[in-house]
Design a protein that fits this description.
With about 450 residues, the protein is of the alpha+beta class. The chain is about 20% helix and about 35% strand.
Length: about 450
């Protein structure tokens, strides 16, 4: 049920005495947001985090002038510094399951949750999903907690009234109101899944991880970012859609260590005005398929490269990001209707969603030995691992999962997320290939492909 301008106009028509007295009728009661806040605010929590970091003290010998005469005398003394931050979270299960932003709790040593009644608990991290910037926590209590149920975020409309609940600037729980300003916002550069609800409800630092609720008190999204050069509300805030949040929470509660998202097995890109005119569309819309994974859901359903996906299960696909988002909120094995354009004619087929395959085997390996890649952990790329890392699911080869601090590999520009294409001009298609190429010790060159798809060949000094 949605309320707005019609109810305000009705209130204006009421006698002055009715406008200034306490609400007496159901209509008058619904003209205030208080019942919605009373139902949903207890499920919004404050999150306080801390971590201890080692800071190196700067000395006179850090100055380049003195280094010319004395050289590098090594690191100066270190001291411990405690870093703290704050954010918000939402209880989505009475058993103490809480969802928040990943950036609120990432790399933190201590996570404390404060309920609306001011009780505090230590929180356990069930799952983190950097791709969506979401994290799922759990706290242990002796009694059920107030929780918010999910709304169907795909049913939201521009102009719907929404409330943002969180802890801005640490002043305490605060409620702000606004409307849905836009849907399916992309290019926000907050997470790998660029698909957000935009709102003008005031969102400030500390609101991250808080609730964006509809007028029925249901969770429409999780507040995650603002658009502002001053790091304060400027009337443009973004929330992760509730349907995507639900998928992450479901994975965490089910005991998964990572989020598995169904896919169609395609990669698509936006349709611009020039392409739309060329293929017979009256405006830019849809996503044109550039790659189809052999044997994947789209391939089995009969989709081909250059087909333009217009809608999935009745929901418009307006961009390449939407082509990733729509299947990711579904269930593996679910059949969906896919409306597409081929050679100027619209058609509809049914495809069965599936998880990206995990072949080849990951074969996660720490490289050790007397060579320049020592200290790097590598793995074979599969579509499933590529999705987990936020890469193109069609990428192949050997990916660098991590590089140990102060390792030899770190000094030789090896970075997390890079794909090792060749070592000394010898192609490396698997972890076995990399290990074989390094058995002789030091190497002369390594060819890498970075996250942006650019290929670079580095000369390595022995």
């Amino acid at each position: 049920m949605r309320f707005g301008l019609p109810i305000l106009l009705m209130l204006m028509a009421l006698p002055a005495s009715a406008q200034t007295s306490q609400p007496r009728s159901d209509l008058e009661l619904r003209a205030t947001y208080a019942p919605v806040v009373q139902a949903s605010a207890p499920a919004v929590v404050n999150i306080y985090t801390r971590r201890t970091v080692q800071m190196r003290s700067r000395t006179l010998f850090d100055d380049p002038f003195f280094r010319q005469f004395f050289g590098d005398i090594g690191p100066g003394p270190t001291r411990e510094r405690v870093q703290s931050s704050l954010g918000s979270g939402v209880i989505v299960d009475p058993e103490g399951v809480i969802v928040t932003n990943n950036h609120v709790i990432e790399n933190m040593d201590e996570i404390r949750v404060e309920l609306s009644d001011r009780r505090e608990f230590d929180a356990e991290v069930l799952l983190t999903d950097p791709q969506t910037d979401l994290a799922v926590l759990r706290i242990e209590t002796d009694e059920p907690l107030p929780a918010i149920e999910f709304a169907d975020s795909d049913e939201a409309l521009v102009g719907d009234i929404v409330l943002a609940i969180g802890n801005p600037f640490g002043v305490g729980q605060t409620v702000t109101s606004g409307i849905v300003s836009a849907l399916s916002r992309t290019n926000v550069s907050v997470s790998d899944f660029q698909f957000f609800i935009q709102t003008d409800a005031a969102i400030n630092p500390g609101n991250s991880g808080g609730a964006l609720v509809d007028v029925d008190g249901r969770l429409l999204g999780v507040n995650t970012a603002i658009y502002s050069r001053l790091k304060e509300s400027n009337g443009i805030g973004f929330a992760i859609p509730g349907n995507l949040v639900r998928r992450v929470v479901s994975s965490a509660v089910g005991g998964d260590t990572m989020v598995r998202r169904p896919w169609l097995g395609v990669v698509g890109s936006d349709v611009d005005s020039r392409l739309a005119s060329a293929i017979g569309l009256d405006r830019p819309m849809g996503a044109i398929i550039s790659q189809v994974y052999p044997g994947g859901p789209a391939d089995r359903a009969g989709l081909q490269e250059s087909d333009v996906i217009l809608a999935i299960d009745g929901k418009d696909v307006m961009s390449g990001e939407a082509l990733r988002y729509r299947p990711a909120t579904g269930e593996a094995g679910e059949r969906v209707d896919v409306r597409y354009l081929r050679e100027g004619r619209e058609k509809t087929i049914r495809a069965r969603l599936a998880y990206p395959p995990e072949t080849p085997d990951k074969d996660e390996t720490l490289l050790e030995g007397r060579h320049q890649l020592s200290g790097a952990t590598i793995a074979n790329l599969s579509p499933a691992l590529a999705e987990e890392l936020g890469r193109n699911p069609f990428d192949e080869g050997v990916v660098v999962l991590s590089v140990a601090p102060n390792s030899v590999a770190r000094r030789y520009r090896l970075r997390q997320g890079s794909i090792i294409i060749a070592i000394d001009d010898e192609e490396t298609d698997s972890v076995d290939d990399v290990e074989r190429a390094l058995r002789g010790g030091a190497v002369d060159a390594v060819t890498l492909k970075d996250q942006r798809g650019q290929t670079v060949r580095y000369r390595l000094s022995r």
